[in-house]
Design brief:
By secondary structure, the protein is of the alpha/beta class. It folds into two domains: 116 residues, Aspartate Aminotransferase, domain 1, CATH 3.90.1150; 249 residues, Type I PLP-dependent aspartate aminotransferase-like (Major domain) (Aspartate Aminotransferase, domain 2, 3-Layer(aba) Sandwich). 36% of the residues lie in helices and 14% in strands. It has eleven helices and 13 strands. The chain has a seven-stranded mixed beta sheet with strand order 2-8-7-6-5-3-4, with helices on both faces. Strands 9-10-13-12 form a four-stranded antiparallel beta sheet, with helices on one face. A two-stranded parallel ribbon has the order 1-11. Helix 4 links the parallel strand 3 and strand 4. Helix 2 runs parallel beside helix 8, helix 3 packs parallel to helix 4 and helix 9 runs parallel beside helix 11. It starts with 18 loop residues before the first strand and ends in a 5-residue tail after the last helix. 46% of the residues are buried. Belongs to the class-V pyridoxal-phosphate-dependent aminotransferase family. Its cofactor is pyridoxal 5'-phosphate. GO terms for molecular function: lyase activity.
Length: 381
């Protein structure tokens, strides 16, 4: 297997001592990202107040994320987390007598269910589509989304087993029913190509700490511009206002587009990190990253099965992402042991998740699976 981006490995210092296969939880820290964090820290020491520079970086990061997903900058809000984004959207939706149903799935991250069940206006009209072995067929959306569905929430990629959904196909179903489509792209943005216009996504959220190679504290919310202008956020703040009303305590006028969903001062340090991370991803090229990770995913699948591992998730390559889940009764303990051996993976319930990025090699994959197989197949803990 060729490695088209081998020169980028030197940008990730931790790779000299660790095999980092946990991008579904936290991407490896790149030198440009680390330097951006240091720059922000040093600028506070040197200047005492770097507000204007920091706000400029927010705008630059907004532009980079817009480029990543094929959106306009005014369609992007800079928030603190995907939970923040989902909550903000939930609180802004109009409660209508005949359009009052919310649909999500059991493969969504738990925060999605927590937020919707907390909404008094919708809690009695919530439908959760249940997967079969972690997989949802398009026919299930066709059946359970109805003419009174206001919004449908789905993950692009399941955090549990890497199941990748066909967003364009689901968008067709959702929109034919009259529903809005909200996509959680936390497990896809940064390694799978996304074009919100071509995919016909109405709303999308993603954070920077996973495949986007940043740190916690920054997330982005995309809302189609025409839709954003129709929504009235109940979670807002001074940065979500038109400049003319930002400092007027008695007057409120929402900013244009998705910016109206912004609240208070963002986490500048993570914005600086996020900007450099996005810049790195775009310079490598998401198409190149996706192609390379498809090869690594195939290696994980075939070599893992050869070593007797039980791989959870779709068998069809078309519906698999590079996130691969392997069944293990003691997943948490195995994660701990592998970390002691300088192999970083991520456990969820009864699965060990292997999630490579463009900086990983086939040799690292083979070594990690060899060590994992020893533990899963009866090795001593």
């Amino acid at each position: 297997m060729s490695y088209p981006v081998y020169s980028y490995r030197s940008l990730f210092p931790s790779l000299s001592s660790h095999i980092h296969l946990a991008s579904c939880s936290q991407g490896a820290l790149a030198s440009p990202v680390s330097k951006a964090i240091e720059y922000y820290h040093n600028s506070l020491i040197a200047k005492g107040n770097n507000w204007h520079d920091a706000m400029g970086k927010v705008e630059a990061a907004r532009g980079k994320f817009a480029e990543l997903i094929g959106a306009e900058t005014d369609e992007i809000a800079v928030l603190t987390s995907v939970s923040h984004a989902v909550s903000a959207v939930a609180a802004s939706l109009p409660c209508q007598k005949y359009m009052n149903k919310i649909v999500f799935t059991d493969i969504d991250f738990p925060t999605v269910g927590h937020i919707w069940y907390a909404q008094d206006d919708f809690k009695d009209n919530i439908i959760c589509i249940c997967s079969n072995n972690g997989i949802i067929q398009p026919e299930q959306y066709e059946k359970q989304i109805t003419g009174d569905t206001l919004l449908t929430c789905i993950p692009h990629v399941s955090y549990q087993n890497g199941f990748k959904q066909d967003i364009r196909e689901i968008a067709n179903i959702v929109h034919q029913k009259g529903s809005l489509l909200f996509v959680d792209a936390y497990q896809s943005a940064g390694h799978i190509p996304i074009d919100v216009k071509e995919m016909e996504i109405d709303i999308l959220a993603a954070g920077t700490r996973k495949y986007m190679l940043g740190i916690p504290g920054t997330a982005f919310l995309y809302i189609r511009k025409e839709l954003a202008e129709q929504l009235k956020p109940r979670m807002t703040g001074w940065l979500g206002q038109q400049k003319s009303s930002a400092f007027n305590i008695h007057h409120s006028q929402f900013a244009e587009g998705a910016r109206r969903f912004e609240t208070g001062t963002p986490s500048f340090i993570s914005v600086y990190a996020g900007y450099e991370a996005l810049n790195l991803l775009l310079s490598v090229g998401i198409d190149h990253i996706h192609s390379y990770l498809n090869d690594l995913a195939q290696l994980i699948w075939h070599y893992g099965r050869e070593k007797g591992l039980h791989i959870i998730g779709p068998k069809d390559h078309e519906y698999r992402s590079s996130l691969t889940a392997i069944y293990a009764e003691n997943a948490g303990e195995i994660e701990r042991i592998l970390r002691e051996r300088n192999i970083i993976v991520s456990a969820r319930k009864n699965a060990v998740r292997i999630a490579p990025h463009f900086y990983n090699t086939s040799e690292e994959i083979v070594h990690a699976i060899d060590e994992l197989a020893k533990l899963v197949n009866g090795g001593k803990f």
